[in-house]
Amino acid sequence: MAVPARTADTFEYALNTYSDMLLRIAYRNVKVLADAEDITQEVFIKLIQRDKGFESPEHEKAWLIRVTVNKCRDFLKSERRKKETALGTSIDIPAAEEKTSGTEVTEAVMCLPEKYRNVLYLYYYEGRTVPEIARYLQSRDNTVSSWLHRAREQLKHSLREAVVKL
Question: What is the CATH number of domain 1-94?
Fold first, then answer.
């Protein structure tokens, strides 16, 4: 049985519960705080426009994560971003958590391909399991496990190179 369509209270709950997580996911993908904020806002606008409810809070969370990842992909492919990057008009402002820990690990994670960044973030920062991540990203469990393994290997390689350079 599906949960009824959203009310102002349920929307406010979703905003308070998921906005920080969605902003972090968007920031890890687009690497510019202002763009990440715009994407997060677009996700919540899409949530408001959604006619039907969700089966459960987990379903709602999975839907929000999926929409955020898709919006990030669309943004990264957009002509607007290509023009901004070419003109040098986008300014990278780190999120609050990155200001205090600008470590090589964070930089190495940010250099990974999008799918690896997302899997690492959801697994380590959000504490999600492989089956949950697979559901969020609409992939198979084995695919997510492979991405997680490859991401770890790439991180290990990147960090070893960074240590050797020091």
Answer: 1.10.1740.10
Report pLDDT digits (tens) over 40-55: 999 999 998 888 888 8
Tell me the C-alpha distance between 65 and 59, whole Å: 10
Quickly name the fold that domain 101-166 has.
Arc Repressor Mutant, subunit A (1.10.10)
pTM above 0.90, yes or no: no
- 64, 43 in Cβ contact below 8 A? yes
pLDDT in tens, 105-137: 777 888 888 888 889 888 888 888 999 999 888
